[in-house]
Amino acid sequence: MRLDMASKLLNFGSKLFKSSKNFFSGAYGKRGSSSINARKWTGARQKLLTFGALTGATGLLMYAMDASVDASSDSVHPAKQQWPHKGFLSAIDKESVRRGYQVYKEVCSSCHSLQYIAYRNLVGVCMTEAEAKAEAEGITVRDGPDEEGNYYDRPGKLSDYFPMPYPNEEAGRAANNGAYPPDLSYIVSARKGGEDYVFALLTGYCDPPAGFALRDGLYFNPYFSGGAIAMGQLISNESVSYADEDVAPSASQIAKDVTTFLCWTSEPEYDIRKILVIKVFVISAFLIGITYYIKRLKWSALKSRKIFFLPEIQEKAKKAAEDNCPK
Question: CA-CA to 145 of 20 to 30 Å: which in 168, 178, 239, 319?
Answer without folding.
Answer: 168
